[in-house]
Specification:
single chain; 224 residues; Rossmann fold; 2 domains; 6-stranded parallel sheet; 13% strand; DNA-binding response regulator; phosphoprotein; Sig_transdc_resp-reg_receiver; DNA binding
Length: 224
């Protein structure tokens, strides 16, 4: 375990999913794979989730997006104002842009799909508990697009930004947030060498010379 991953105590997690078999499997997997996680409750509906989370006060809620009585966005709507310290990580079979955008706008800190491995899910839970935003591959672009188009803000329209590929934007966003190359590679499921190639390409396209200038450039364009 690296220094950045060390925890004083296990991260407390609450599971929300309308499939009991999935909740049972997720609990077993999370707790057997790592001692960094302790599941403190679970729920199969919006009403059960609201009551259970209010009672358990977990650090992280693993939240299903689609449930018969309103889904993850409804849980967020009811609880975010009351429990701002609780972090919500969406966990869904869906990787549709509209689903990702809806729960992120509602207040989720990240979004991963159910194809994620047990160890990667543990890592995602720990990271969001530490303040990071975590997304499965290719979903980060949906979030960038959503924030670029959010009400009250001007859409991004920049000739230099338009030169960057979606993956280059993903790398730039993480770089500007302070991620090391190795962390970017792990987050985007690419090699460190590929990260270096993308950064070199972004530097060339933007005609900037270092990471600090890139961070400022990304911040000015609301990519961070």
């Amino acid at each position: 375990m690296t220094t950045g991953e060390q925890q004083q105590s296990p991260v407390t997690v609450f599971l929300v999913d309308d499939h009991a078999l999935f909740r049972a499997g997720a609990r077993t997997e999370l707790e057997s794979v790592s001692d960094e996680i302790r599941v403190v409750g679970e729920a199969g509906s919006v009403a059960e989730a609201v009551a259970g989370i209010q009672r358990a006060r977990p650090q992280v809620v693993l939240l299903d997006v689609h449930m018969p009585d309103g889904g993850g966005a409804e849980v967020l709507r009811r609880l975010r104002p009351e429990l701002p310290e609780v972090v919500f990580l969406a966990l869904s079979v869906s990787d549709a842009a509209e689903d990702v955008i809806a729960v992120i706008r509602a207040g989720a800190r990240g979004y991963v799909t159910k194809t994620i491995s047990s160890r990667d899910l543990v890592r995602a839970v720990v990271r969001v508990s530490e303040g990071d935003a975590v997304f499965s591959p290719r979903l980060a672009g949906f979030v960038l697009d959503a924030f670029a188009d959010r009400p009250g803000s001007e859409p991004i329209s920049d000739p230099d930004l338009d030169l960057l590929t979606p993956r280059e934007r993903d790398v730039l966003r993480l770089l500007a947030r302070g991620y090391a190359y190795k962390e970017i590679a792990s987050e985007l499921f690419i090699s460190v060498k590929t990260v270096e190639t993308h950064v070199s390409s972004v530097l060339r396209k933007t005609q900037l010379s270092n990471r600090y200038e890139l961070s400022r450039w990304a911040s000015d364009r609301r990519l961070v």
